From TrEMBL:
It comes from the Bacteria. Its EC number is 2.5.1.-. Belongs to the class I-like SAM-binding methyltransferase superfamily. CmoB family. It holds the Pfam family Methyltransf_9. Homotetramer. CDD domains: AdoMet_MTases (cd02440). This is tRNA U34 carboxymethyltransferase. Keywords: Transferase, tRNA processing. GO terms for biological process: tRNA wobble uridine modification.
Length: 321
């Protein structure tokens, strides 16, 4: 099982110390109702070897290389354990000659948004809905002092811990299996990321307020989400599913999203990127058993989803508290 005590010790003397009033009890409750495969996933992490990398690159990739190459048998053993943790959605990871080719080329998104961010060096960062934690490692690569990811999915926690073990990394990055709605307002983070979360929320303005509650005054919000074309009054509310996802509630225009952010009290709100999701960025791989973007689009017209909506387009919005 994952041991959270080192994280408690780490934050006890930090700006996050107030979190200790609620966090241990919440995680104890979480442990009492975990997914039926959680023990199996933890075993897969436990069975991974302890390796000492000769080099680790978190600046240009998430990559570790050994002093000498692993044998084919050693690689296959690691691959076997890592594939117990499928599907791998966010990546890629390059670990001792093993390429975890995830569904999403999350490095594409990182390369789009990084030039626009306030420098991450020495910052305390919260990554909401962090998945397996790919972007958290890239944040460390930019010199962040501490990165906390939150995501309630047990599989993502085990994927994160597997990568941590193979990278042989310290505790500057931690994934906590909770949702932001369970966090007390800490007002302690220099930067808060919410990427690919907003459209899954039944109350989007409440989510934006929760993000603001975690930021220090002057801190930066990095919000990445699905958008549609239109003016400040344009918001798509899918009748049933959007791109086969049943948990998509509100997809605003950029202008509407900027209005929402200003309405909950953010300032200096600006859109820094708009990109249509490509079949190169999200696709099927050997590390994913499920369908992917090609299956969510109209086979006759890739500019539309299978339901007839506009194909996924994503915007990056920055704002300050």
């Amino acid at each position: 099982m994952i041991d959270f005590r080192p994280f408690y010790q780490q934050i006890a003397t930090s700006s996050l110390s107030a979190w200790l009033e609620t966090l241990p009890a919440q995680l104890k409750q979480w442990e009492s109702q975990t997914h039926g495969d959680y023990v199996k996933w933890c075993k897969a992490v436990e069975f991974l070897p302890h390796l000492t990398p000769a080099s680790v690159d978190l600046k240009g990739a998430v990559k570790a290389e050994g002093i000498s190459p692993l044998s084919a048998g050693e690689q296959q053993q690691i691959i076997h354990h890592l594939k117990q943790l499928m599907p791998w959605r966010k990546g890629p990871y390059h670990l001792y000659g093993i390429h975890i080719d995830c569904e999403w080329r999350s490095d594409f998104k990182w390369d789009r948004l990084l030039p626009h961010l306030a420098p991450l060096k020495d910052r305390t960062i919260l990554d909401v809905g962090c998945g397996s934690g790919y972007h958290m490692w890239r944040m460390l690569g930019e010199g962040a002092e501490m990165v906390v990811g939150i995501d309630p999915t047990e599989l993502f926690l085990c994927q994160f811990e597997a990568v941590r073990k193979l990278l042989n990394q310290d505790r500057r990055a931690n994934l906590i299996p909770l949702g932001i709605e369970q966090m007390q307002p800490l007002g302690a983070f220099d930067t808060v990321f919410s990427m690919g979360v907003l459209y899954h929320r039944k109350s989007p303005l409440e989510h934006l307020s929760q993000l603001k509650d975690q930021l220090k005054k002057g801190g930066e919000l990095v919000l990445e989400t699905l958008v549609v074309d239109g003016d400040e009054n344009c918001v798509l509310v899918p009748a049933d599913r959007y791109a086969k996802m049943k948990n998509v509630y509100f997809i605003p225009s950029v202008a509407a999203l900027i209005n929402w952010l200003e309405k909950v009290g953010f300032n200096n709100v600006r859109c820094v990127d708009i990109s249509v999701t490509s079949l190169e960025e999200q696709r099927k791989t050997d590390w994913l058993e499920n369908e992917s973007l090609i299956d969510f689009l109209d086979p006759q017209d890739h500019s539309k989803t299978i339901e007839g909506y506009h194909a996924p387009k994503r915007a990056v919005i920055l704002a300050n508290k």
